[in-house]
Amino acid sequence: MAELYGHHDLSRILAWAASLALVLCACTAAPAATPTPTLQPPTPSPRMPTLPPAATVTPLPTTTPAPTATDTPPPSSTPAVTATVALSATAALSATATLAETPTAAAVDKAEFVADVTLPDGSEVAAGSPVTKTWRVRNAGATTWGPGYELVYVRGESFGAADAVPLGQTVAPGQTADLSVPMTMPETTGVRTGFWQLRSAAGTLFGVGAGGNEALYVQVVIIPAGATAGPRPTIAPGESLRVTSATLRMEAADYAGPCPHTLVFIGVLEVQGAGTVRYQLEATSQTPGFTFTLPDPIEGAFPGPGPQTFGLSYSLEMRNSVAGSARLRVTAPNEIASEPVAFTLTCQP
C-alpha cells in the first residue's frame, strides 16, 4: 500500500510539475507580450499627428510659387510685342499713304500730245466760219480722268469757244482720247493762236510736256470768207526746199506783276518743197547785265511739196525784270528772219 501511495504521490508530483511548467511558460509569454507594448512607443501614432504640422511643410506651396503665375509677366511682354508690331505696321501703312499722296498731288495728272486730229498748225480757215478743233492726247499720269475733268481756255485767241468744255468721257492712265472744242473763227484775217489746258475735278490745271504743265494750242491762218488761197512764192529752179516767210508775235508784250512769269512767243513759217528746216529763237536785252537762256536750234522735216504753213511756239520763264526784243531766225535751207518783237517785263511784289 505504501508503494502504491508513493507511486500515486509521484504522479501527483509530476502533474504538479507540469502545471508549474505551464505556469512558468505562461509567465514567460507574458514578458514576451510586454515587450510589444514597449515597441508601441516607437510607433507612437499619437506623435504622427505632430508630424503633420511638420508635414505642414506647406513651405512647399511657397515653392509652389513655381506655378509662378508671376511668370505671367511673360504674357504681359507678349502683348507689348504685339502692340509694337501693330504700331510698326501702322507706321508702314502711313508711310505708304504718304507715298501715295505724293503721286496724288499735282504731278499725278499729266497728258501727252499725240496728234492734231483736225486743224493742224497753219491750217487756212475762212473768217467767221464754225470749226471744231480736236487734239488726240494720252493720259500720261496716274489718275483716271472722269466726271469733273474739263478742257479750259487759258490764253490767246478764244475763237468764241466756251471757257470750259467737259471731257464727257473716262480716260484711264495709258489710254488715248480725242478732246474737241467747237469754235468760230474771228472776222479779222491773219495768224491766230489759242491755248487750252486740262483741269482736274479738284480744279488743278495740267497739260502736256515734260512737266505736265504746257498748254495744247490751235494755230490757224484766217483768210477772207469766200476767198481761196492766193499765189505763194515758188522755189527757184534747182531748189528742193525753201522757207519763204517767217513771222513772230507775243501773247503779252508788256507785263507788270509777280514773277516768275512766262513769256510766250508764237511763230509761223511758210515752206515750199520737201526737206529739213533749221530755225531758232534769238533775243537781245536792253537791261544791263541781263542774259537770256534760250532753247537750242530746232530741225523740222517737211514732206513737201508745199507750200505749207508751220506754226510753233516758245515759252520763256522770267524771274527778273527785263526789256528786250526777240526774232525767229531760219538758218537752213536758206537764211530768213522775222521782224523783231519788243517786250517789257517788270517784276512786282
Compact description:
This protein has 349 residues and is α+β, with helices and mostly antiparallel strands. Among the domains are: 110-223, Immunoglobulins (Immunoglobulin-like), CATH 2.60.40; 241-347, Immunoglobulins (Immunoglobulin-like). It has helices at residues 2-33, 35-39, 51-55, 59-63, 73-104, and strands spanning 111-116, 123-126, 130-139, 150-156, 164-166, 176-184, 190-199, 205-206, 216-223, 241-250, 254-257, 261-273, 275-285, 298-302, 308-318, 322-332, 336-337, 341-347.
Task: Write up this protein.
The chain is α+β, with helices and mostly antiparallel strands and 349 residues long. Among the domains are: 110-223, Immunoglobulins (Immunoglobulin-like, Sandwich); 241-347, Immunoglobulins (Immunoglobulin-like). Helices cover 23% and strands 38% of the residues. The protein is built from 5 helices and 18 strands. The chain has helices spanning 2-33, 35-39, 51-55, 59-63, 73-104; strands at 111-116, 123-126, 130-139, 150-156, 164-166, 176-184, 190-199, 205-206, 216-223, 241-250, 254-257, 261-273, 275-285, 298-302, 308-318, 322-332, 336-337, 341-347. Strands 2, 4, 5, 7, 8 and 9 form a 6-stranded mixed beta sheet that branches. Strands 11, 13, 14, 16, 17 and 18 form a 6-stranded mixed beta sheet that branches. It has a 3-stranded antiparallel beta sheet with strand order 1-3-6, with no helix packed on it. The chain is globular. It starts with a helix and ends with a strand. Residues 1-8 and 23-107 have low confidence and may be disordered.
